[in-house]
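User: I've been going back and forth on whether these two constructs are worth ordering. Before I decide, could you fold them both?

Assistant: Sure. I'll take them in the order you sent them. The first construct and its structure tokens:
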Amino acid sequence: MLFQSGSLAVRELEQSDNIWLSKWLSDPAVLEFYAGRDDPHDLDKVNEVFYAQEDDEVRCIIEYDAKAIGYIQFYPLDDESKREYGYTDENENIYGMDQFIGEADYWNRGIGTLLVTSMVNYLTGDKQADVVVMDPQTRNARAIRCYEKCGFRKVKLLPQSELHEGKYQDCWLIEYR
């Protein structure tokens, strides 16, 4: 368990979680903003994308009342990503994060706000992050409202930075300091 905040818990991904990821990443409502509705993930694809990669991402499952409800990952930004985003202080400890709640019954209940706030506290406390960044699509208004409630602010428009459903989407670089 990485951390727990009331009914919310975040733990590292286990192989048996591939069934949850496949379920969530086959749901068009989840895929509308994460991966794309044209890119559903069966078990083989989940295993390839989430388990076969060697990188610095820490992949986790979000639980609420001991039920798996979503996914979150975090990672230190590499030098290339820092430059791309416009960060020039190489001594800054910058983390990125991405997440989704895969169980629609848990949407619009404040769980996303609790999750993002708790993860930011974990990253700034346990990982000594100076800055935490995300890059949501500009059209994902619900997520952006959540992130702004958690203290993130828009710092830079990233034009046509994410290929999603066959079209390049604009994203916001948002940060928590």
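The second construct, handled the same way:
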Amino acid sequence: MSLTFAPPQDQSLPLHLVDKAGLAALVERLDPAQRAWVLASGFEAELGAVLMVPGHDGGHTLALAGQGTEAARARTRFGLARARAGLPGKVFHLVTDLAGEALNEAALGWLLAGYHFGRYKNKPAPEAQLVAPAGVDATRLEAIAAGEALTRDLINTPASDMGPDELEDAARKLAESFGAHVAVTTGEQLLTANFPMIHAVGRASTRAPRLIDIAWGEKGPRLTLVGKGVCFDTGGLNLKPGNSMGLMKKDMGGAATVLGLAQMIMTLGLDLQLRVLIPAVENSVAGDAMRPGDILTSRKTLTVEINNTDAEGRLVLADALACADEETPDLVISMATLTGAARVAVGPDLAPFYATSPEDAAAVKAAAGRVADPVWEMPFWTPYEARIEPGIADLDNAPAGGMAGSITAALFLKRFVTASPRYMHFDIYGWQPEAAPARPKGGVGQGARALLDALPEMLGL
């Protein structure tokens, strides 16, 4: 897995990025032998197409990577990433007119295309390498790629090897590498420390539930990230059918994403005080599992009627958010693979989010466009508040009817962030269902790059 740029070297081959409109002009600039080769090959500069062009000595002298048409590029992020797989294991340098955001996207896509999950099946084939293009911040792009790789690795690892204890180990390893402080509250300690809903969700598992708390940085604005760490979700007593349970190793995608974002922040040394809270649990079935109809009292003392044990993510997040809110940080952000309703609304590629601050929402949307990390703003729609208020408790964890499921879940979470001035919530999918450029099938981060790019504006860094 190669997620870094190659150092500059004299023997690197030129890799020309060429679209359909510019192909004829490029061919005219080649020497006669190269021109004849390109014309004979039938290369048409389709998006992601690759052509290696030989020289007089039989070796390669340059390569072409097709960029297709403007319409094709508008429909596909990371076009250069698609070309990387077709190139041999040599070192290349880009020859392109791309600049600014387009060049950054191409360079980042190249790095992300170097990811593969090799824990259980190695991929030893040599990979093409790229010298960092002039005009990009190579250090920043490599930090982003490394954070994304951490997120993908955590999500891709099956629950047999990524339970609450292993997720804690991963968080500790990350924190220790940056000198961050870690505190973990585990098992019955959750009750004495007043995290009753985290305990209730995870108590039926043989793997103890816990709250992971990471703190880094001593100056600057305070940012708290809260990530849903349900390492596997059977649905509890409201047991999921088999076809819905198959991907539940990814139900800790929110935790994986905030850890990846935290790694980016710490690697780049952003001037802020970072806190990361991860309620890590496994939602299992046993004699002491929570039941439909139970009423839980949360850390914030709000009572919650359990109308579906499969709506457990918002319960563990609620206690963690209440804990975050007690310190009144400048900004609280939660990330979770929370609702199927979000997938129905926007599909797997978009990350819907909610924000109490219109300025924060605008900053994230603008950043998402700059860094090819698509998001979609959703509303904290106040008229739906009544839907999360049952008759015999303060809140309902699974309102009947099924409509506006992502919005009602976000409204539920918002009830636990009352002192902090600004709150954002991301209802992500965390999974790439089909391979795409720079995104193999499997775990994927969503929203982290947009947030990283927007943080300076949101926090005045």
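Notes on the second construct follow. The mean pLDDT is 96. The first strand starts at residue 13 and ends at 18.
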